[in-house]
Amino acid sequence: MQDGSLSSTSYSDGTTLFLAGQAGMMLLGSWWAQEYTSEDVSDAVANWDYDYFYLPALEEGLSDSKAIGGVDFGYGITKNCENPDLAWKALVSFATGEGAQEIANDMNNHLSYPNIEPDTSAMVERDGLQNVVDEFNRSGKDIAAGLVNQRIAEPTIETAIQEAMQGLIGGTYSVDEATQHIQDAQGAL
Q1: Measured between alpha carbons, how far is 101 from 162 in angstroms, rounded to an integer?
Q2: Nearest-CA neighbor of 33 among 131, 124, 115?
Q3: Within 74-174, where are the H helices?
Q4: Phi, psi at 25, each rounded to 5°
Q5: pLDDT 10s per residue in the chain (189 long)?
Q6: d(CA 43, CA 28)
Q7: Rounded CA gap, 54 and 75, in Å?
C-alpha cells in the first residue's frame, strides 16, 4: 500500500486514479456504468473497455466471491400519511413502472424488480454503448441470482471492525490487539 492510502476513498479518489490510468482496478458498484451515459465524459469512459469480475476462492474447497450489496436508498409510507393511495401509486412506479424505467435508463442502480432494462434511445451514441448496457444487465442478473448483503447488522461491530483494520494497517494495533478490539465491542453488547 502506498503512503496515505488510508485517507483515500474509492468514491472519488479511486475513480479518479482509475480513469487516469493510474489504478488497474477499483472496487465500485455495478451502477458505475452510469458514468458512460453522461454527455461529457473522460476518454477512458467514452472508450469503455471495462468489465467486472468476482474474486476467486482463496484456496481449494472454498467458494468464489458472490455479488454483494445493500440498500442504497429505500422508500416507505408513514402510518400518518395523508394520502396513502397516492403514496402507494408512487412506490409502485418507483419499483415496477415509469419511475423504475427511468432509473434503469440512467443505469443508476439495479432495481429490486427484475426484467427492466435500460432504453438506450436517449443515450449519447458512442462505440461500446452496447457493451456497457450488456455489462449493466449482466450484473443485474448476477445480483438477482443471489445477492449477499455486505452490511454488518450491528453498527457497533461494524465500527469496531473498521477501527481494528485501520489500527492494524496504520500500525496502532497488532493482529491480536485488533482482534481483541472487535471482541471487546462484541462483549459489550
Answers
A1: 36
A2: 131
A3: 84-96, 98-105, 129-144, 155-170
A4: -160, 165
A5: 667 777 777 777 877 888 788 888 877 665 567 777 777 777 777 777 777 777 888 889 988 777 776 666 678 899 999 999 999 999 888 888 888 888 888 877 776 666 788 888 877 777 777 877 887 777 777 777 776 666 788 899 999 999 999 899 889 999 999 999 999 999 999
A6: 19
A7: 30
Grid cell at residue 66: 458472490
Q: How many CA atoms lie within 13 A of 99 on its CB side?
A: 13
Q: Is the dihedral of CA 163, 166, 172, 173 positive or negative?
A: positive
- Read off the C-alpha cell for 54: 468476482
Please provide the size of the chain in residues: 189
Residue in the structure block whose three cell numbers are 445480483: 143
Q: How far is the C-alpha of 186 from the C-alpha of 168, rounded, in Å?
A: 18
